[in-house]
Give the backbone structure.
Amino acid sequence: MIASSAARGSSLATQNPPGRFRWARRSRRIRRYSSLPSATAPSCPVSGLTGAALLSNGASRIVDRFRLVDWPGAMALLASSGPAEIVHRVRQAEARHAVAADDATVAHCTGLGTI
């Protein structure tokens, strides 16, 4: 059953608060929302960036569900050990907590300050 328009709006308001990550697709049943006007990323000068990371909701469990590290700690772990370590630690935590594995994908871009 697909959520009503009002329920979707209410759900989006709680899942997409200002200053937090954004959901573009909530579930396999609700394929897309007709409009996500607040689904924008903050901007910063490219000259100040040395790297960037994109984490799927499964990989972000290292911070938001299992609280193994905070976001600066996750970035430090990426820099020192790479994306595979993030996924490895998430998988270990999923096993410890007996929760189903979720997608865990990490894209880590480095060397941006040299462009």
Q: What stands out?
A: Helices lie at 5-15, 61-64, 71-81, 83-96. The chain is about 35% helix and 10% strand. The longest helix spans residues 83-96. The chain has two domains: 1-41, 46-114.
